[in-house]
Design goal:
This protein is α/β, with parallel strands linked by helices and 211 residues long. It folds into two domains: 129 residues, 3-Layer(aba) Sandwich (Rossmann fold); 69 residues, Winged helix-like DNA-binding domain superfamily/Winged helix DNA-binding domain (Arc Repressor Mutant, subunit A). Helix 4 crosses helix 10 and helix 7 packs across helix 9. The termini are far apart.
Length: 211
């Protein structure tokens, strides 16, 4: 069972998510909180697989909370769920380590599918968000002397940033899944990271890909 923690201050939305998630036979709610402060005063993150985290929370906002979560639990998958879809929030969330980004208008089926995808190694995004990421992220020549990605590696880093699975990347660039994994390992080694979210974050910070 996929254990899910929800951090959302809107009681009605929170209860709706609880119902949808608990109804699915592959996942269940571990804990529910109305703020990051409440969550950090518990052991919830040690007992879960995926966190649904709102950005506009009372007190500590979701981006600040995300940074703390990823610092202490780097392998935990965090999906940002918010009404905001502007570029600043999107890229702030990705830089901070979010594995996915959903707007709150997602359907119950889309929410459940996003949790499964995140837990399976994907990066779920609402289609409108994914389009903005695809449009704004483009490979460019590397000027940083310490990081030199070849054209194929840049192409794959861009695809990672848009949330595509290894299978989807392989189909798009005509490579086997093993071939995609080989290039991703090379990207991770060159960027000195160990996960998709870290690779995207470093790529943005080093201006290898542009927000």
């Amino acid at each position: 069972m996929i254990q899910v923690v929800i951090i959302e201050d809107n009681k009605y939305l929170r209860e709706g998510w609880e119902t949808f998630i608990n109804f699915d036979t592959n996942m269940e709610i571990a804990r529910v909180f109305g703020s990051c402060e409440e969550a950090f005063n518990s052991d919830a993150f040690e007992q879960c697989d995926v966190v649904l985290l709102d950005i506009n929370l009372p007190g500590m906002n979701g981006i600040e909370g995300l940074k703390i979560i990823k610092a202490k639990y780097p392998t935990l998958d965090v999906i940002m769920a918010t009404i905001f879809d502007d570029d600043k929030y999107i890229f702030d969330a990705l830089k901070a380590g979010a594995i996915g980004y959903l707007v709150k208008s997602v359907t119950p089926d889309e929410l459940v599918a996003a949790i499964v995808e995140a837990h399976s190694g994907g990066s779920p995004m609402t289609p409108s968000i994914a389009k903005r990421v695809i449009k704004s992220l483009r490979p460019e020549k590397i000027n940083n002397e310490n990081v030199r990605l070849n054209e194929r590696e840049l192409e794959i880093l861009k695809a990672l940033a848009t949330g595509k699975s290894y299978k989807e990347i392989g189909k798009e660039i005509f490579l086997s899944i093993d071939g995609v994994r080989h290039h991703i390992r090379s990207v991770y080694n060159k960027l000195e990271v160990s996960s998709r979210s870290e690779a995207v974050s470093v790529g943005l910070n080093k201006k290898i890909i542009k927000p």
